Every structure is written in C-alpha cells, then in structure tokens.
Amino acid sequence: MAIEHLVALSRLQFAATALYHFLFVPLTLGMTWILVIMESVYVMTGKPIYQDMTRFWGKLFGINFALGVTTGITMEFQFGTNWAYYSHYVGDIFGAPLAIEGLMAFFLESTFIGLFFFGWDRLSRKQHLLVTFLMAIGTNLSALWILIANGWMQHPVGAEFNYVTMRMEMTDFWAVLFNPDAQAKFVHTVSAGYVTGSLFVLAISSWYLLHNRDVEFAKRSFRIAAAFGLASVLSVIVLGDESGYTVGEAQQTKLAAMEAMWHTEPAPAGLNLIAIPDEAAQKNDFEVKIPWVMGLIGTRSVSKQIPGIIEIKQKNRLRIQNGILAVEALEALRKEPGNPALKTRFAQYQADLGFGLLLKKYTANVANASSAMITKATNDTVPRVAPMFWSFRLMVALGFGMLALFSLATWYSVKGCFAQRTWLLRWALYFLPAPWISCELGWFVAEYGRQPWTIYGVLPTHQSVSTLGVASLYGSLAGFLGFYTVLLVVEMFLMVKFAKQGPGSLGTGRYANEITQH
Amino acid sequence: MFDYVTLKIIWWLLVGVLLIGFAIMDGHDMGVGTLLPFVGKSDLERRVVINTVGPHWDGNQVWFITGGGAIFAAWPLVYATAFSGFYWAMLAVLWALFFRPVGFDYRSKIDNPTWRSTWDWGLFIGGAVPPLIFGVAFGNLLQGVPFHFDNDLASYYTGTFWALLNPFALLCGLVSTSMITFHGAIYLSHRTEGEIQRRALRAATIFGILLMILFALAGWWLYAGIQGYVISSPLDHGEMANPLAKTVIRQSGAWFANYARAPLTMLLPLLVFLGSTLALLLARKDRTLLAFVASSLAITGVIATAGAAMFPFIMPSSTDPSSSLTVWDSVSSSLTLSIMFWATLIFMPLIIIYTSWAYKVMAGKVTAAYIREHDHSAY
User: Fold this and answer.
1) What integer is the mean pLDDT of B322-343?
2) From B55, which residue of chain A is nearest by alpha-carbon distance?
3) Which of A160, A352, A486, B96 could form a disulfide with A323 if both were Cys (CB 3.0 to 4.6 A apart)?
4) CB contact under 8 A, A70 and B351
C-alpha cells in the first residue's frame, strides 16, 4: 500500500538524517566545555600552551561544528516537509520550544562562535573567555530546548485536544517546561556529549603520546579530558538510571520492551541481564536474571509492580476500544459543533482518542473496525523487543567500559604516570568510536521505543506524515544520502588530517609538524 | 494580557519582523556569497571577501532558523502546508544552504586551487539559490497555491514543482535575487577597499537599479494581471483557528484594497525606491555604513509591500479559496501566542545587543594584509 510505503520512507529519512546529525552534536556539546576549561586555565596561569590547546582543539571542534550546523537545518525543515500533519496537530506545543531554542540558544551559540574563532587578537583574555563560555552556554541551552520538545513527545503533559481546531493545544507551559522526562533526558544527553568530547581529546592525545610527540601538549590535554570524562560518565550513568525511573512512570511500554519483560512479575521485578526474546511466542527462550534490580530502578520501591508486555497489551486493547468511541464522537461533533450531548460524550472518551487513531492504519472507518484489526492495532502498541533489548544492553555495556577507562585514566593522571601506560593509551585510542555508538544506540532506544507513536498515546506515527508521493520520498532520501556521504568523507578527511598534524597546524613554531598549509 | 485578535495581529507583525531581519542579516551574507566568484579574482581577494562575513554568517543564519521555528510555533498550519506543499523548493533551499557552513569553514583549510574554487562555487550556490526560491515562493503566494484541507485538516498540495516556476513567480524571484545581491554589494563596499570595493560598488549600481525596475514591473503586473483574494463571509476574528470556517473569493484588485483603505501604507513601496537610491548615492560618497542602513530600508520596503497587500492572507488557495490560510485562522492558541510573544520580547533585544557587539569587535576593513597575517586562522 502506498501509504505504508510513504510512512516507512518518511521514518527512514527522519531516522537517517537525525542519526547523522547526532554524529556531530555530542562532540560539539562536550568540546565547548573542554574549551572553556582549557581557556580558563590559560587565563588563570597565562601559560601560552593552554591558549594553543584551546585553539587547536577549537580547530577540530570547528570542523565538526560545521557539519552539525549543516545537518541541523535539515531537522528544522523536516517536521514541515515530511511530517505536516504532525506539525499541524502538535505545533501549538512542539513549535514553541523550537522557536525559543532559536531565540535563546542558537543565536547565542552562533554569534559567539564567530568571535571564538576570529576574536583572539581583538578581545582581552577575559573577554575571549567570556565569549567561549557564552558559546558553551548557547550550545547546551539548545540541547535543553530540543529535549523539552522531545520529552513532550515521550510524555505529553500540559496539553489538551481541541475539536474545533483539530489539534492538541497547550494548557500549561510550565508543565511542558518542567516535564520530568525532559529534565532527566537533558542531563543524560548532554553528559553523553561531554563523555564524547572527553574521549575525543583523550584518544587523540593518547595517539600523540604513543608516537612520543607534542608530549607536554598531549599530557595536559589528556589530564583535562580524563577528569572531565570521569565526572561526565558518572553523570550519564546516574541520569540514565533516572531516565529509567521516569520512563517507568510515563512509558512502561518502552521499559518492558527494553527489558524483554513479557509478564508482570511480583514486585520487585528482576532484571534480565541477558535473554533471547522470542517475539512470536511472547517469551524469552533463555534468560539470566538478577533479582530485584529492575523493580528498584523502575519504581524506586520494593512493592510497586512493573507491568509486562502481555498485560500492557491487554490494557491497550481496552483503550483502543474506548478510542473507537472517541473517534466516533469526534466525527459526530465535527458535523454538529457545539451540540452539548456530543460534547459530553466526546469528553468521556477523549483520553483514548489517540488509541482510536491507531486503527486508521487498518481502516478509514474506525467505527466499523473488526476484531482482527483491533488485535493488530493492539500488537502494534509495543515496539519489537529484540532491537530494543540488544541496543539498550550494548549502550550500557559501552557506558561501563568508558567508566572503567576514565576511572583508570584519572587514577594514573593523579599518579602522574599515565604517559608510560601504553596499554591505557591504546585502550583510549581504540575506544574512540564507543561514545558515538552509545549515543546513536541511545537515540534508537528512545525513539524506536516510542513507536507506534510520534506523540506517545496521542498521535500515531502512521497519521503524522505529509501527503506526499512515494517518488518524492525516494528522490529526497537519495539526495540526503548522496549529500551526507560526500560531506562525511570530506569531514573525516579534514579531521584526520588536522588531528594527525596536531598543534603544529596552528603555525606558532612551538610544535612538531609545522607546515606551510593552513 | 492581550486579547486573541491583538495577539494574532502582533504575530503577523512579528513574523514580518523576523523575515525582514533574516533578509537584512542573512541576506547580506548571501549577497556576498553570490558576488564572491565575480568580485574576487584571485584567491587572496576571495579570502578578503569571505572574511568580511566570516565571523558573522553563522549568527545571521539563525534569523532563518528562528524564522522557521517562529512560523512553526505561531502559524503551525502555514508551516505544515507550505513546507510540505513546496517540498522540492524547500529541499532545494536546504541543499543549497548545506554548502555554506562547510564552504566557509573548510575552504581555506587546504591549499589547493581546485578544492578552493569548488567551495567558492558552493558558497555562490548557498548565496544565490535561497533568495531566488524565496522570491519565487512569494510570487506563488500572491497568485494563490493549489492546496486544500480535508475534514481532519490534513493538507493536500495538488500542484507540481514545475508549476511554481511560472513567469510572475520567476519575476518575483529575480526581484528577491537583485535585492539580496544589491544589499550584499553595499555591505561589501563597507568592509573592503581598493579594487574589490570598486567592483562591489559597480555590482551595487547594477543590482540596485535592477531591483527598482523589476520591483516596479512586478507591481504593475500584480495590478494588471493578478487577482487577489477576499474573505466573503462574516468572520469573528477572535474565534478559534479553523481555516474551514469561512468562504473566500478571488477578486481583481483585491491586493490593492489595503492600500486604498490605509493610504499611509503606500509609503512602503516608496521606501524601496527611496532606500535603493539613497544607498547608491551614499555608497558613492563613501558613507557605506549609512548606505547599508538605506539598503536595509529598501529590503523592509519590498517585504512589507507584499505583506501589506496580502493582509490578512498568508497563503491563499487557488483551487479551494476557502481553504486559504489567514492571520485569523491558521494561528496557534492564545496561550502559545502569548508565551512566544514574551519570549521574543525578552530575547530579541538581547540578540540585537550582542550581535551589534560582535560586529563592533570585528569592525573595520578586511584587507589583504589581514589575511596574510592570519593565514592559519582566517577563512
């Protein structure tokens, strides 16, 4: 069916462009603070090497930042171009944080990044540090606002459906702003960015040390990255756990899928360390369970239960049945707006309207949906378990791997002998891809785990797309893939070139590999 | 604080301000990009040209991003209908914009003529294509766009990409391109000296005169050959936003009715001629900063002229006029408009203050000596 095809392609395009954008964002988030730290040391000590560190790592940061900007514009366009019904249906709430993100964060970040690069000899040391600081604040605020927007997709609070305008409308801005889901997500995500920045500096510094060049420069960079990375990775894990808790309240479905928990267990539930989920039979063929842990993370109690997939589906089936009544009442109300009896009837079932809309995937006439359709829609309400289960586990495993790395790096930094620990330097170097893989997996767990919804419980993904032809989607998808591949090759080429060349690329005359190029 | 009707009008004005801000700020960067391959003959000259906007283009681009975000937040139906309806046009803008961040940042990092000239043409595309397409889009808005809504308010665009490229719309595209190139040339004359400045002034003369001629031509065409739209049913302006609750008819001369109703608005098209002429005269007298103010006024005139003609319409529908989007019925809820108003009121002055500071820090002519001195750090 054309519409199925359209939805699948729109999702693929969004996922591809968002995951690609997210290759650059975490590094930007982390590097801005590392630059602030390095430059603060420069301002406090006056040692030129710290200015060189700020400028050199700033150069690499700039190469990354350019693609972050490039691919970020796509995200802003794409809600309108490919998710028009979504934009109409929730723009009243979702648009606001996006616009405020521009006003409060992007302007700040983008104006001061210009002065960061070009203001060195026009600003006093303190002024320049202030510029770097404001750039970092801007960058991090942008993450705050986009995650407030995203948090609302996961846990839509402070809004209500309006049958006249046929959309969700904001009723409480502060609820949207202080959405617990958004707050936990924000700290978890920016901390993951800080880890990415730290590992980036740690790995490249290790490479210089392994090659025994620019040693002073590399050692200082290594120490800063190790300490900042350790603090950040701890924050990621603690706040990841906090996300687990809020997810438990707002989105039990995601949690159940992530944990391959088919049945509700007596509280406190055990955590499946490893399992082989069998989607068709709705059970695990094999599992290694740690008792209690899941219940503690998910509910912060020993007595509250966490619902399993099968029970969630049973509950959702009832909501879909109520949703049918909501859709019927809404259709009647649209024909006779203001009819008090219809209003009352709609109000009664309104909470389940989104569940009724799930049936639109199978029939235009929701009122006459067959029992088989209801069953299909019910099964849709839980995302596929295996991808969720394994992505989550890989992310967490890499997270703990990075915790170990940063702990040891900090330990040997304090002892002052890290430069001789070649196994540690090699570990740091080979672990370079780890934060990127974790970040992408984290995105996948959060967004794939929300399926079949764009707005959890409110608007199905299937209903959210623009009324475009499939050919247009193939064309644009091909265009994005083409552009992004070329851009990635160019970016990697420059990044590797300048990383290899090292601080010599600054042309100060103080480092190895001075060159005639720029 | 404000009633819904007032908020709707405020947001029409604010979107106008953001569009004008975008055209003035990002516009001069795009104008500079468009002129780059022509006013910069050698690599050194091109680096001078690029570095006049180097520290600022990124901040200026945010006018565009914030404009998009503001339309999303304040006019979600316009954002949804226009972005999806103009699918290929929007993608063309987007893909053209791809060349800018990488073009600016990567160009001078490798000392290779092919590499550099490739990015120079990339910067040209990133500068020339968006204004052209925005002009074409405005030309289509003035004629009406083929779309309608179903009962669930899903929008259906029934035209093709090629239909957007009709003669009147292309003329509007040229108006927009001339305007932005003119503005960029004036800016360049302010920030450069010698041969580059002379070339920039020549470009300013050409595109300034072109702007006035094409703008007059488009005005005449609009008057003589294009029907406007009128709301023909009684409409409570304070009602909740539902674009299906009115009827609209097409009418000759409708786009000029606002000018007859409020004759002061006729100053807006006059501003285009006044601003352009003044900018050209001032630039010749080496009062280039004032010339920049004057060309900014000309830009304000062009955009406000179109806005005032169409009010209260934002995006009229040619195939189902009653589906047309207006300031009354394609807006967000009163609460969202109000919150966004306050957010804009707080942040816009701050943005203007620190942007001005950034320009002040980087003020002065960009010279060949500056580039040589900053060989490793300049773009």
Assistant:
1) 96
2) A114
3) A352
4) no
Q: Is B97 on the interface with A (CB under 8 A)?
A: yes
> Residue B311: left if φ>0, alpha if ψ -120 to 50, beta else—which one?
beta
- Interface contacts A/B by beta carbons within 8 Å: 253
Query: Do A7 and A473 form a contact (C-beta atoms < 8 A)?
Result: no
- Which distant-in-sequence residues (6+ apart) come within 8 Å of B325 by Cβ? B75, B77, B78, B81, B243, B313, B314, B315, B316, B317
DSSP 8-state assignment for residue B322: G
Chain B environment of A88 (Cβ under 8 Å): 76-77, 80-81, 153-155
What are the beta bridge partners of residue B326? Answer: B313
Return the amino acid letter for A71: T
d(CA A122, CA A118): 8
CB-CB neighbors (< 8 A) of A466 in chain B: 80, 84, 87
Cβ-in-10-Å burial (0-12, 13-18, 19+) of B321 comes to: buried
The residue among A469, B136, B73 whose CA lies nearest residue B145 is: B136
Instruction: List chain A residues with CB under 8 Å of B336.
Output: 92-93, 95-96, 169-170
Closest C-alpha among A305, A246, A312 to residue A270: A305
| A283-310: average pLDDT | 82
Determine the residue of chain B that is closest to A90 in CA distance: B76
Of A74, A115, A118, the CB nearest to B94: A74
Q: Do B336 and A112 touch (CB under 8 A)?
A: no
Torsion of CA B41, B47, B48, B52, to 10 degrees: 130
A 10 A CB-CB count for B167 gives: 10
B359 Cβ under 8 Å from any chain A Cβ: no
Phi, psi of A355 (to 5 degrees): -70, -35
How far is residue A24 from each of residues A379, B12, B266, measured CA to CA in Å?
Answer: 36, 35, 48
Summarize pLDDT for A263-275 with one digit per residue, the tens.
888 878 888 888 8
- CA B253 to the chain's CA centroid: 25
Q: What residues of B are in contact with residue A79 (Cβ under 8 Å)?
A: 72, 79, 83
| Nearest by CB: B81 against A84, A95, A516 | A84
What is the DSSP code string of B45-98? Answer: HHHHHHHHHTTTHHHHHHHHHHHHHHHHHH-HHHHHHHHHHTHHHHHHHHHHHH
Given B84, B339, B343, which is nearest A80 (Cβ)?
Answer: B84
Scanning every residue of chain B, which has its alpha carbon at the shortest distance from the alpha carbon of A508?
A: B376
- Record: contact A70-B333, CB cut-off 8 A: no
A30-76: pLDDT as tens digits: 999 999 999 999 999 999 999 999 999 999 999 999 999 999 999 99
Q: What does the domain layout of chain B look like in residue ranges?
A: 4-373
Tell me whether B70 touches chain A (CB under 8 Å). Answer: yes
Candidate from A67, A88, A93 with C-beta closest to B77 = A88
Q: String of b and e for B279-311 (b: at least 16 CB within 10 Å)?
A: bbebbeeebbeebbebbbbbbbbbbbbbbbbbb
**CA A115 – CA A98 distance, rounded (Å):** 25
Two tokens at A225? 């990255």
Name the DSSP letter for residue A300: S
- DSSP letter string over B18-39? HHHHHHHHHHHHHHHHHHHHHH
Coil, helix or strand for B250? Answer: strand
Interface touch A84/B154, C-beta < 8 Å = yes
Q: Are B66 and A107 in contact, with CB atoms under 8 Å apart? A: yes
State the nearest Cα–Cα gap between B185 and chain A, in angstroms.
Answer: 21
| For residue B68, pLDDT beyond 50 | yes
Q: Residue B203 and residue B222: Cα distance in Å, rounded?
A: 28
Structure tokens at A180: 């617990």
* Residue position matching structure tokens 């480092």: A511
